[in-house]
Amino acid sequence: MKIATWNVNSLTARLQHVLDWLAVNPVDVLALQELKLSDDKFPHEALRAAGYEAAVFGQKTYNGVALLTRAPLLAADVARNIAGFADDNARLIAATLEAPGGPLRLVNGYFVNGQAPGSDKFDYKMSWLRALRDHLREELAAHPRLLLVGDFNIVPEDRDSYDPVGLAGTILHTDEERGHFQALLGLGLVDSFRLFEQPDKSFSWWDYRMLGYQKNRGLRIDHVLVSPPLVGQVRACSIDRTPRKWPKPSDHAPVIVTLG
DNA sequence: ATGTCGCGACGTTCGCGA
Fold this sequence. Notes:
This protein is α+β, with helices and mostly antiparallel strands. The protein has helices at residues 11-24, 44-49, 120-142, 175-186, 228-231; strands at residues 2-7, 29-33, 53-57, 65-69, 79-80, 92-97, 104-110, 146-151, 190-191, 205-206, 218-219, 222-226, 234-239, 255-259.
C-alpha cells in the first residue's frame, strides 16, 4: 500500500500535474494541501476518471486539503479541522480507510506557516500546534493505526535545511516549532523518512525565487509520521522530485510511503 | 532585483500569503 502527500499550491493550477503524476504513481492514497479552491470547484469528475474518490475540505483563495483514495472512504468518519479549536482556515481533514491488517486513520494537515517569530501569525501557529497535539492524542487512542501527513511547515533538524546556520531562529527553523515537532514524536509518532538511509540534502520544498530548485536551496517540511503499530510495516519512504522539474510546478514535491 | 508564484479585487496592476 502506497500513501503520498503533496502540497500542490492551487489544485486549479496543478490539476494536470496531479493527474499526470497519478498516472505513473497510482498510489492508494494521495493527501493534498493548499487546494486554494472552494468545495464546489473541486474537480471530482477528472479525479474519478483517474480512479480516485475524494474527501474535501476546501477554501477559496487560501488553504484547503483533500484525501484522494482508490477505495471509497466512509463519509460519516471524515473529520474537518480540530474539534474544539475555532479556526477560519481549512487546514485538516481526517478519514478512515479499510486496509489489510485493519483500518488506517489518515490525518492530512496544512500546518500554519507562521510568517515570522513574534508575529500574530506565529502565535496562531503555536496555538494551532498545541491544539493539534491534544487532538492527536485522542485520535491515536481511538485509531491506533494512524498516519499524520502533510505540509508541516517545520524543518525538524538542521540536516533538513539548505542553510541551517544562516536560517537559525527564522520561520520554520525556530526551537519552538521544532519543539512542537518533537512533541508529536513524543506521542509515539515516527518520521517515516528517517527510518531509512537518505541522500544528504533531501528536501521537499524549494523557493520559486533565486533559482532555488536548480541550486537545491530547499527545506524538508513535508512529512509522513506513522503511529507505533505501523512503524514495522513501513517499507520505504522517498521524495519524488520529478514533478518539481515540470513546467509551472508546485514549489513542493510529493513524499511517498510504502506500507508492507 | 523585494528576485516567483497564485489568487482576486470596482483589475488591465496591486496587495497578500507563501
